[in-house]
Every structure is written in structure tokens, then in C-alpha cells.
Design a protein that fits this description.
By secondary structure, the protein is α/β, with parallel strands linked by helices. The protein contains 14 helices and 17 strands. The structure holds pyridoxal-5'-phosphate (PLP). Pyridoxal-5'-phosphate (PLP) binds next to helix 4 and helix 5.
Length: 429
């Protein structure tokens, strides 16, 4: 047994963790009278206890001030989206005017493609990764069809070229070089949802731009997970959601980044009144003069109740800071990796790259070593066993268990508990 597989080790790590007090700021789901070991922040982040006060503030304001709530008192609804801009800018590494919280991820992806995917007869293709998240793929395919193009000839997919289903930078470079003159848009993830692989976004943007293409990022699994430098990456646009690592609740209002070089673009866009310059918005005239920057893509007055929890979350990110979160995240995920390598390698294989620069907090794991007695998938059997122990990961077909130790609320003790539950399952098989 390795020294790492002990309570002493895990507890000592947790005791010296400078971010340890954040765990108590979250509601942790209970399992048989104790906290769950919740490793599903990649899917739905836990509720910050501060979220309720922000939601109640909106409810109270609505009850007491009704329509006046738009213009009076604190946290007025008219400029409410501006409350999240500056703290969000710190999390994703952007200028505040490059950001807006609006809509949902997929809706924002469509809005961005309307503006930044402008096919011509020579340059009409969109390059994505094979195995991209279904919603992204549907969005891209439907945009191609909407422009009268056929996905068979205009959708280029970069296939995984590494043993574990991950994609090398060389493969991305080869695809961009091979198809360069045809590519209108490169759409790439910050962190791949299934494998947990993180990409060098600045390099992807450089390659795409060198080929004359636009580049957009889907940061659903990267926002709040990795310290991003969106502005410096040079991306034309980026979209993400706030309900995963950003802990802002189911269906939370999403994020959108438009690089400042496009702040005053005359590109086509789908418009709505909330994107109109605030100084003339309520003149209710027929002319649309978009607000410079990302806010010019807003359609509607935002769902204030939906935005409220994001304020609580951003307050936490502001206090914790991304560099400190990342430092803890590397330790925590490294601990999980070590426990697997030293104690569980006969049953678990890690799909996610081992270099910290090529992953966020998530490790994607496959069960190896034959099938269970019932003939069921062994991965599914382990996944279900973990759930009975109050250890929650998630399952992605056909055979991956995703485990995402998040630095705001997970501990080394959680990771140790997971490893022990895997041991119990192995011994009981
Ligand atoms: C979570 C996720 C989505 C979900 O899209 P919504 O519009 O928020 O429902 C889309 N794409 C990726 C890559 C995701 O990880």
C-alpha cells in the first residue's frame, strides 16, 4: 500500500490547502448522513450558499418595486448584466467590453456563427473535432444547411490520432494546413468533454488565422476550470455555459466573448433591442445601432433571476482567484492520478493526457481487465457501485467514467474515498 493511500496523507494535504474554507460555502448533497464525494462539477457545479441571497434579492425587489426595479436601488435590472462583466473578465482573461452573459451556450454559438461564419464560394468549410459535443455538431451542421451547403463537403473533422482518443497539435496543424484555403471557421473546444484533453488555444487560434480562417472556442469545460487568456489567445469569439465549473445553477445564463477587434464590426448579426446602444434603446426608433463590443449581440432583456446565482459564484472566483484554483486543481487531480497508477492500474486506465498542460481537473477513466460476472460493461458496474458509496462521477457512453475533482469544493479526502471505493469494488468482483 502506498503512503498516499492513507487518511494521514490526505488529511495533511487538506489541512494545508489555502482554499479549504471554500468547501463550507457550498451545499453538499448528502448520502447516508454524510457529504457526497461529488466529482460532477463538469456537469452541474454545486450550489454556492450565497446564491440564495442573490435570488431572493431579485424576488424581493420584484415584490416591492415591480417595474421600478429596473431603474432604482441597488442591483438595478437595466444594467444588471454589467454586474457580472468585470468579475467574469478576470476568470476568462478578457476585457470587460469583450464579454456578455446572455442566453444559453448553444444559442450563443448560433449567434456567433451568424456573424463570424461567412462562407464564400472558395472558403466555406467549418473545421471541428471528430467526436465533438452533439449540440455543437448539430449547431454547425444546421448552420451549413441554413447557408445551402452540404455538411458532407463543408464539415471537416479532425480525428483523434493518439492511442487514448486524444488529438495531437500536429494533427490539428495538418488538417488546417491541408484544408486551409477552404476553411472559413475553426471551432474548437477548450477542454474536450469526453477525454478531458485541454488544448493550447493560442496555438489553435494562430494556426487558424494563419490559414485565413476565423476561430471560435467552446469553453463549456474550460471556463472556471483552467486559467484562460481569452483576449491574448486572439480568438474571434468564444462561448461557454455557467452551470458546470462556474456553479451558477441548472440552465444558468451563458457566457459569450467577442474579441475587441470586432467591437464595432459591420458583419451581419441577428439583432434584438437589448443589443441596441443603451443611449437610444428606449427611443424605440426603427434603427439598430449596436452597442460596441459583445453586448451588441444581446437580443432580449436578460433573465434576472437566472443571472443572480452567477453573482454569488463570481464572488467566490474573485476571492479564490484562478491561479490559486489551478494550483490546487493540479495537486488534486495529480493525487487522483497517483492513486490510480500506484494502486488501481490493474482495473483503471486513464484516458486523459498525463501532462498537466494538456488537461484540466477532469480525469476520464476506463475500466480494463475483463467483463463483470453478469456480462454487463465493467465500467457501468463500477460507476453504479461508486454511486452506492456516495461517490459521484458521471458516465459517458460507451465506456468512460468522468471524475472531476474541483478545487473549490473537493478535497484530497474525497479523492481517497473514491480510490477506496474502487478497491472495494475490485475486491468484491
Ligand atoms: C455542456 C455543453 C453544451 C451544452 O449546451 P447548452 O446550450 O448549455 O445546453 C454544449 N457544448 C459543449 C461542448 C458542452 O460541454
Amino acid at each position: 500500500m502506498s503512503e498516499f493511500l492513507t487518511d494521514d496523507y490526505a488529511n495533511a494535504q487538506d489541512a494545508s490547502d489555502p482554499l479549504r474554507h471554500f468547501r463550507s460555502e457550498f451545499h453538499l448533497p448528502q448520502h447516508e448522513g454524510r457529504d457526497q464525494a461529488y466529482f460532477v462539477g463538469n456537469s452541474l457545479g454545486l450550489q454556492p450558499k450565497g446564491a440564495r441571497a442573490h435570488v431572493e434579492e431579485v424576488l424581493d425587489k420584484w415584490a416591492n418595486e415591480a417595474v421600478e426595479g429596473h431603474f432604482t436601488g441597488s442591483a438595478q435590472w437595466m444594467p444588471y448584466h454589467e454586474l457580472v462583466r468585470e468579475p467574469l473578465a478576470k476568470v476568462v482573461g478578457a476585457q470587460p467590453h469583450e464579454l456578455v452573459a446572455m442566453n444559453s451556450l448553444t444559442a450563443n454559438l448560433h449567434l456567433m456563427m451568424v456573424s463570424f461564419y461567412q462562407p464564400t464560394s472558395e472558403r466555406s468549410a467549418i473545421l471541428i473535432e471528430a467526436g465533438s459535443f452533439p449540440s455543437d455538431r448539430y449547431a454547425v451542421e444546421s448552420q451549413l444547411k441554413f447557408r445551402g451547403l452540404s455538411p458532407e463537403s463543408t464539415l471537416i473533422e479532425v480525428a483523434p490520432d493518439e492511442a487514448d482518443g486524444t488529438i495531437s497539435m500536429q494533427a490539428i496543424e495538418r488538417a488546417i494546413t491541408e484544408h486551409g484555403p477552404r476553411i472559413a471557421l475553426v471551432l474548437w473546444p477548450g477542454v474536450q468533454y469526453r477525454t478531458g484533453q485541454a488544448f493550447d488555444l493560442k496555438e489553435v487560434a494562430r494556426l487558424a488565422h494563419a490559414a485565413g480562417a476565423m476561430v471560435g472556442f467552446d469553453l463549456a469545460h474550460a471556463a472556471g476550470n483552467l486559467p484562460l487568456q481569452l483576449h491574448d489567445s486572439g480568438a474571434d469569439f468564444a462561448v461557454w455555459c455557467h452551470y458546470k465549473y462556474m456553479n451558477s445553477g441548472p440552465g444558468a445564463v451563458a457566457g459569450c466573448f467577442v474579441h475587441e477587434r470586432h467591437a464595432n464590426t459591420t458583419r451581419p448579426r441577428f439583432a434584438g433591442w437589448w443589443g441596441n446602444d443603451a443611449s437610444v434603446r428606449f427611443k424605440m426608433g426603427p434603427e439598430f445601432n449596436p452597442t460596441p463590443g459583445a453586448e451588441g449581440w444581446q437580443l432580449s432583456n436578460p433573465p434576472i433571476l437566472g443571472l443572480a446565482p452567477l453573482r454569488a459564484s463570481l464572488d467566490q472566483f474573485g476571492r479564490a482567484t484562478m491561479p490559486a484554483l489551478r494550483a490546487k486543481s493540479e495537486r488534486l487531480t495529480g493525487y487522483l492520478e497517483t492513486l490510480i497508477h500506484e494502486n488501481l492500474s490493474d482495473v483503471l486506465q486513464i484516458v486523459t493526457p498525463s501532462e498537466p498542460s494538456r488537461r484540466g481537473c477532469q480525469l476520464s477513466i476506463r475500466v480494463v481487465g475483463g467483463h463483470g460476472l453478469s456480462g454487463r460493461s465493467p465500467g457501468r458496474s463500477l460507476f453504479e457501485h461508486l454511486a452506492t458509496q456516495g461517490v459521484l462521477g458521471d458516465w459517458r457512453e460507451p465506456d468512460v467514467i468522468r471524475i472531476s475533482p474541483t478545487p473549490l469544493y473537493n478535497t484530497h479526502a474525497d479523492v481517497l474515498r473514491l480510490a477506496r471505493s474502487v478497491q472495494d469494488w475490485r475486491n468484491g468482483r
